[in-house]
Amino acid sequence: MTLNKNFNNLKQSYLFVEIAKRVEAYKAANPDADVIRLGIGDVTRPLTPAVIDALHKASAEMGTPDGFRGYSPDSAGYPWLREAIADYYAQSGVKINAGEVQVNDGAKSDLGNFFDILGEVKVLVPDPVYPAYVDTNIMFGNPIFYVAGNEANGFLPMPSGVGSTRLDVIYICSPNNPTGAVYSKEQLAEWVDYALDNNALILFDAAYAEFISEPSLPKSIFEIDGARKCAVEFGTFSKMAGFTGTRCGWVIIPDELEYGGAKLGKMWYRRQSVKFNGVPYIIQRAAEAVMSAQGLKEARELIAYYRENAKTITSALDKAGIKYTGGKNSPYVWLKCGRPSWDYFDYLLTEKNIVGTPGAGFGVNGEGWFRLTAFGTHGNTIKAAERLVSQ
Amino acid sequence: MTLNKNFNNLKQSYLFVEIAKRVEAYKAANPDADVIRLGIGDVTRPLTPAVIDALHKASAEMGTPDGFRGYSPDSAGYPWLREAIADYYAQSGVKINAGEVQVNDGAKSDLGNFFDILGEVKVLVPDPVYPAYVDTNIMFGNPIFYVAGNEANGFLPMPSGVGSTRLDVIYICSPNNPTGAVYSKEQLAEWVDYALDNNALILFDAAYAEFISEPSLPKSIFEIDGARKCAVEFGTFSKMAGFTGTRCGWVIIPDELEYGGAKLGKMWYRRQSVKFNGVPYIIQRAAEAVMSAQGLKEARELIAYYRENAKTITSALDKAGIKYTGGKNSPYVWLKCGRPSWDYFDYLLTEKNIVGTPGAGFGVNGEGWFRLTAFGTHGNTIKAAERLVSQ
Fold first, then answer.
1. Which residues of chain B does A199 touch, with a Cβ-Cβ cutoff of 8 Å?
2. pLDDT number for residue A13
3. B280–A281: do the CB atoms touch at under 8 Å?
4. Are both B31 and B17 inside the same structural domain?
5. Interchain CB distance below 8 Å, B62 and A55
6. Does residue B378 sit within a domain?
């Protein structure tokens, strides 16, 4: 009996677990401290009325002989949800076939499991980066290469920063977690060209697309010519509609996407039919409600709420003369803390009672930087912003 | 860019997809036929009142600022659900620590993904077998060995039937899908001894445990001495409480379970924290309700309903003089059809308008046998039973 030895190469503790530990220890020692959490990227506002209605309606159906649903007819989701997601793309001018949409329980699962259908691949990861990208590939034993995001390139690494090794898989997250930076269409086009030239695959993480406020910025990789031949896009209801505890997302695999004659969409569908039984019916109905006209209106009001928080934070940083990226088209503000980021974490926690996320937790290029999120309440975010600028 | 070449070794079509195709074609040609589906192992009765109440209550919470829940504190599930599952085991005398319970979105996902934490392993699969076990291992490229279940051993293969190759992973499903056969404690003890002697791991699929009606038969592998050192158990709410479309299950990984000093429970926890974000809060509350006194009472009434169907089917088979296993402690009745099982499928579909599952779809030893399920309504099952015995 042998185990997966690659697990030995994982670092001991997951970033957010370490943060939770330090916060717990501080709170245990200082039970009266009013600690404000702008750390983990979790939403705080309730699900919106259209979603709650759908949940109740579907729950009631499940209690009746006629309304009850067993296994999803398809691990990729009910047709009405796949069509609703395709329609959502159509609204911003991106043509997706409902058959190209496969529903999942959140982007994290698919971003990790997607490697099940790939061979041994060399992977390009931006640094700083969402830690799960790296851990997934360590578990698979895939060679990982990094491309640096830094102050000089505005935390938007470009193909020119990649070495000469021929790479197979390229992660792109835009709007970016943790830096909040967003690629322009021209910049994404460079990555698409690079992928096409190298017969590589782009895994495009669009979890924060709805936070984009500038109309010129691309919300989907499929706004770029050629992307249908080299990219897969992961979307999620988590941040756009507060589904972090409700769990539903999707992956778009274009029909054209194939390598050596094998269609990725078909392989993924097969993988899922063997190792996944679909998202709960009730949750699929809730997700469908998000994509309705009323649901999208409510979701965008939610996002406007969080965007106001981002503005509160960036205004305070402007006032304090602290450099940052993000905030405008992203729920994340990435600030230059000018010292080791775990030191800054401890300083913010103990002196200002604010929990953020140390940039070092996202990679070597994150050192000296720090992430705050706009997912708090208005009241807490205003309080935190005041503490940030106070001496 | 390379793909997972093992996918080329998968058979073209998944069993239930092929069945669905044949049924659709028949119904298209015979739109008025009253086709009764006793094929796919899906439940048909609605969720019970305790579960529906919990769904509504949790849905309402999610719409309020105070009741809203984002990410699960833990991908392994809320403590109250893990404790409820441990309590459930305690009620039948099996001592499990809540920390050994990890909640998932159904047994299928974990039974497949579990190999992520293992190395290259030789796998023992009973034949006939639930097809996902085999497909999962084909995808991983693991060498698969079979042990025959057949009329002679009552479809309960024993270690004496295994060849001399040293095997690493042993699948056991009891009560069995598709044969309905159930191991006794003495028989399971032989498998536990075999696993301990060979430093192997048992993956115990207990999806149908609640269907056991004879008190002497084991519902959990952990009723067997030594199992905590060689077994993992997969449980699910799917069949016990009608959750096939609601999606919640669990895996028990005992603290003692380790190979070469590495604890499997910790590795799996780490795997899940990187590639899974937990089961929806609303669904975890519904699952908790199943484990309450009232929920279990309702679940067992559901099971009694299905058990009556099994009795209806087996009585008809007795009358017709057809041999079978299962039915008494299982929702599955496995009958000897005495001809190629896809022929019998077509015969039942076209002559009797009954959909079942051909034994050949579960492996070479399934040929000549056929699976019917007790998951229909009473009305349909009685009608199907009448058709079975009619000339």
1. 1
2. 63
3. no
4. yes
5. yes
6. yes
Same-domain status, A193 and A73: yes
The answer to whether residues B231 and B222 touch, using CB atoms and an 8 Å cutoff, is yes
Q: Write out pLDDT tens, residues A52-93.
A: 999 999 999 999 999 999 999 889 999 999 999 999 999 999
Residue B181 lies in a domain: yes
pTM (predicted TM-score): 0.96
**What is the average pLDDT across B74-78?**
95
Our count of domains for chain A comes to: 2
Range of the domain at A335: 12-47+296-389
Can you give the CATH number for the domain in which B188 is found? 3.40.640.10
Task: For B74, name the nearest residue in chain A, comparing CA atoms only.
Answer: A17
CB contact under 8 A, A277 and B45: no
Backbone Cα Rg of chain A: 21
Nearest chain A residue (CA) to B64: A46
Residue A192 Cα distances to A199, A230, A256, B188, angstroms: 10, 7, 15, 56
What CATH number is attached to the domain comprising B366?
3.90.1150.10
- B66 exposed, middle or buried (CB, 10 Å; 0-12, 13-18, 19+)? exposed
The interface predicted TM-score of the complex, written ipTM, equals 0.96
- B222 and B335 share a domain? no
CA A334 to CA A154: how far, in whole Å?
11
Name A266's Cβ contacts closer than 8 Å, sequence gap at least 6: none
Contacts of A17 in chain B (CB under 8 A): 273
Residue ranges of chain A whose pLDDT lies below 70: 12-13
Query: How close does chain B come to A74, measured CA to CA in Å?
Result: 10
Residue B18 belongs to a domain: yes
B184 and B57 inside one domain: yes
B275 touches chain A (CB under 8 A): yes
